[in-house]
Write a structure and sequence with these properties.
Number of helices: 2
Strand order of the largest sheet: 10-16-15-12-13
Structural class: mainly beta
Strand content: 35-45%
Helix content: under 10%
Largest sheet: 5 strands, mixed
Distance between the termini: 66 Å
Radius of gyration: 36 Å
């Protein structure tokens, strides 16, 4: 056998005497030996200069202690580990000191936008916000985006495409740099006009990228560098609100300057196919949903079909996918999409049966038309399958609804039926297999070799709640279902009084002795 090593310090990160330490990383201390975690409290370390708050955690699986605090840039730190840190045998570590110097904060430059896609008012100056630190300049590239590119960038694979998209060389509209001279190690904000004259960009779709010479760029992985900041801009004079149901799409267009509805706008609703419409006097247009998959976005183009920055015609784009902050779950409301075309409730005459007994079941069906329920056509076919606890099919039959929209049946269990939980499954016959929603209903029941109880026992306590170690005063009463009381002496398993799961909190059920309680007559 091998004895445990004496408590000692194996290494630290950053190591003692290091310089240029990253401000953003935590301190890791690796021990040898079996550390007594109770000695790793707030008094187990001292940090100079003293930070405002410190977080520490010990990972026993690799004997690693992490100490983290908000570090200041270009600062000399000394971390002293207290001498009374000990192992489980009481052997002290002895006082240890680790000194290091932090470097400057990591340079960064980001577009200060809430999302990778943004809509901008064509009536106001088009500005983009950028956050930066420890850089000398910001380099911008502005390009136009055509409709084919927009369709892909707003489509189902938009997450990957937004990371890898590169504008066409001939789509470059403007390239410029802004020199900055921020105070060292401070975060700063810049608002840069995108139009050369500082005014609004013409209505259209644009792509902006920004870089800084001090920042390393790559695919976003730590070893390769951050992804270059990028943003898709939709500059439009319209405010567009879209809504979709299972089979319909609605769009409402209003003018951003006047707030009035915009009539006679051509609208194209593009998904798996294209539907065209014209806004009415209320600025509203409707069309059939162009995707069967409800979560697949439908892109709606409003205005001139001549898309791009070169077109100075009024134009706008929206997507049914844009619902951040507006979805039902943002308001704590349940939702189901698409809504089920049929509602149903199935039940059995009892929750438990013995082998050999009949199981009577019934189902009630209603057609659900946007929360308006009606009885289905008589003769609507329903496939019913019942499976035992092993998943074996023991009943399969097709039923037809009656004039009341119900179906019913009976299953007589075999004398040798297995015990356990059985499931009844009901589905509408002939329902398309490729339909997004499959109407499904069911119920469960238990099969058991049970015996009807002959008596009942009631136990009441003086207090509804008690703490560990309290004396419990209880009254027990018993009665046969025939009407007479139980005998004066009654043995109950102690597990009836345990707080959880039918077991004593400290002993297995098999070792708990019976508890004898004498009842009155």
């Amino acid at each position: 056998f091998q004895t445990a090593p004496r408590l000692g310090l194996v290494s630290s990160s950053p190591p003692d005497g290091s310089t240029g330490v990253a401000v953003e990383t935590a301190m890791n201390i690796l021990f040898q030996g079996i550390v007594d975690e109770t000695t790793l409290g707030k008094d187990a370390y001292t940090i100079i200069p003293e930070p405002t708050e410190v977080f520490s955690y010990f990972y026993s699986y690799d004997n690693r202690w992490v100490i983290s605090w908000p570090r200041q840039p270009e600062t000399d730190y000394t971390v002293t580990l207290a001498g009374d840190i000990a192992d489980v045998f009481g052997n002290p570590l002895g006082e240890q000191s680790i000194g290091f110097q932090t470097g400057e904060r990591r340079p960064f430059a980001h577009l200060n936008v809430p999302n990778d896609i943004g809509t901008y008012n064509a009536y106001t100056n088009t500005l983009i916000s950028a956050s930066y630190r420890n850089v000398s300049r910001l380099d911008f590239k502005l390009s136009s985006v055509n409709e084919n590119e927009v369709a892909r960038l707003l489509g189902q694979d938009r997450w990957d495409l937004m990371r890898t998209f590169t504008p066409r060389a001939d789509a470059l509209l403007r390239e410029w740099s802004v020199a900055v001279s921020p105070e060292r190690n401070t975060n700063n904000l810049l608002k840069a006009p995108l139009a050369e004259d500082g005014g609004p960009l013409p209505s259209g779709i644009y792509w902006i990228e920004m870089r800084a010479p001090e920042v390393t760029y790559g695919d976003g992985a730590p070893e390769s560098g951050q992804l270059a900041p990028r943003h898709l801009l939709i500059v439009s004079p319209f405010n567009l609100v879209s809504k979709r149901t299972v089979d319909e799409v609605l769009i409402w267009a209003t003018d951003l300057q006047s707030g009035q509805p915009v009539p006679d706008l051509p609208v194209r609703m593009v998904g798996d196919n294209e539907v065209q419409a014209i806004t009415d006097g209320d600025g509203v247009a409707r069309g059939a949903a162009t995707t069967q998959e409800p979560w697949k976005p439908i892109t709606l183009y409003v205005g001139s079909a001549d898309v791009g920055a070169e077109s100075h015609r009024p134009f706008g784009v929206t997507s049914t996918y844009w619902q951040s902050g507006l979805a039902s779950w943002d308001f704590g409301l349940p939702s189901e999409f698409p809504p089920p075309p049929m509602q149903g409730y199935f039940y059995s005459d009892r929750p438990i049966y013995r082998p050999g007994q009949p199981v009577y079941w019934k189902g009630i069906l209603r057609v659900d038309d946007d929360a308006i329920l009606r009885v289905p056509e008589p003769g609507t076919q329903v496939d019913v399958v019942i499976r035992n606890d092993r998943g074996e099919e023991i009943y399969k039959q097709q039923h037809e609804t009656n004039a009341f929209g119900t179906v019913d049946g009976v299953l007589t269990l075999a004398e040798e039926a297995t015990t356990g939980f059985y499931n009844l499954e009901a589905q509408l016959a002939g329902w398309p297999k490729d339909a997004y929603f499959q109407p499904y209903f069911g119920l469960g029941f238990q099969v058991a070799e049970y015996r009807k109880p002959e008596f009942t026992i009631d136990l009441t306590t003086e207090k509804p709640e008690v703490l560990g170690g309290d004396v419990i005063t209880a009254t027990v009463s018993g009665e046969f279902f025939s009407g007479s009381s139980t005998s004066p002496s009654l043995k109950l398993p102690r597990s009836l009084l345990s707080p959880c799961c039918g077991r004593s909190p400290t002993e297995p059920l098999s070792t708990v002795p019976p508890l004898t309680i004498t009842t009155d007559t």
